[in-house]
């Protein structure tokens, strides 16, 4: 089983970006794929806060659905802005199953400055390749969302994200840190643009399995859910596993923490 993560440069217009990303995925994602992950604002150009023009969103979704079916893989579509019925824009990401059906969806508001807002729903999905959590953009960088999903059983976090080019070293460390502290694998996808400096990676608690750096393309890494399950197994000698990263908690402290400042 293999996890594939897409990292591509934004072209002059969304049509060109979509063609580059989808053509590359269709040629490089093999039948060994278990998961395919695209970034936040996967097909935009410079105007990341605008909906995709014409029927482009539908055509992108159709091709990603075909990819999921043809490779018998789960595909996190990345996200793109869509108009909300009540006005404004919503960033929407979908997890497609091997049959092409939508398994989960994450929706977040597009804020006035064009960035993506956070939310309080964090899907966890049982798949044929293990239990996965689906995260979009800024939710990944908060402490609680990854931890909530891992406590709910997520063994792999699929992240449609972006990585600020000016803070890449620190955020790269954070990707690995989140994997370690939650005893979870992380498949993090980001684009290459003026506001997103790449840094796509697949991380395990022990380190990175694959990193894209600032190179354009599709990276792949082996996926074995049994490894995470093993690392989460109790080992009171603290020599074989990392179970304490997720399970060693003192929830009785939460009341005192939340009560402070009231």
TrEMBL record:
Q: Which SUPFAM superfamilies match?
A: Carbon-nitrogen hydrolase (SSF56317)
Q: List the coiled-coil residues.
A: none
Q: Which Pfam families match?
A: CN_hydrolase
Q: Which residues form the CN hydrolase domain?
A: 1-236
Question: The organism sits in which domain of life?
Answer: Bacteria
Check the record and name the PANTHER family matching this protein.
DEAMINATED GLUTATHIONE AMIDASE (PTHR23088:SF27), NITRILASE-RELATED (PTHR23088)
Record family assignment: Belongs to the carbon-nitrogen hydrolase superfamily. NIT1/NIT2 family.
What is the protein name stated in its UniProt record? CN hydrolase domain-containing protein
The organism encoding this protein is Streptomyces thermospinosisporus
């Amino acid at each position: 089983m293999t996890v594939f993560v897409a990292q591509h440069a934004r072209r002059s217009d969304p049509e060109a970006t979509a063609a580059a990303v989808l053509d590359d995925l269709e040629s490089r994602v093999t039948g060994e794929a278990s998961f395919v992950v695209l970034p936040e604002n996967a097909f935009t150009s410079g105007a990341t806060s605008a909906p995709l023009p014409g029927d482009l969103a539908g055509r992108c979704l159709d091709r990603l659905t075909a990819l999921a079916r043809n490779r018998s893989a789960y595909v996190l579509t990345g996200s793109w802005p869509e108009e909300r019925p009540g006005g404004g824009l919503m960033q929407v990401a979908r997890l497609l199953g091997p049959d092409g059906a939508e398994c989960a969806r994450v929706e977040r508001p597009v804020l006035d400055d064009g960035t993506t807002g956070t939310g309080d729903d964090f899907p966890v999905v049982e798949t044929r390749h293990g239990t996965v959590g689906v995260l979009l953009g800024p939710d990944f960088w908060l402490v609680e969302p990854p931890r909530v999903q891992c406590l709910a059983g997520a063994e792999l976090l699929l992240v449609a994200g972006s990585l600020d080019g000016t803070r890449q070293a620190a955020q790269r460390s954070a990707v690995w840190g989140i994997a370690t502290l939650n005893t979870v694998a992380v498949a993090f996808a980001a684009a290459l643009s003026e506001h997103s400096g790449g840094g796509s990676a697949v991380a395990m608690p022990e380190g990175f399995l694959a990193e894209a750096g600032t190179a354009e393309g599709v990276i792949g890494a082996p996926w074995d859910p049994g490894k995470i399950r093993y690392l989460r197994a109790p080992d009171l000698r603290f020599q074989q596993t990392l179970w304490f990263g997720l399970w060693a908690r003192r929830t009785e402290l939460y009341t005192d923490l939340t009560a402070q400042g009231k």
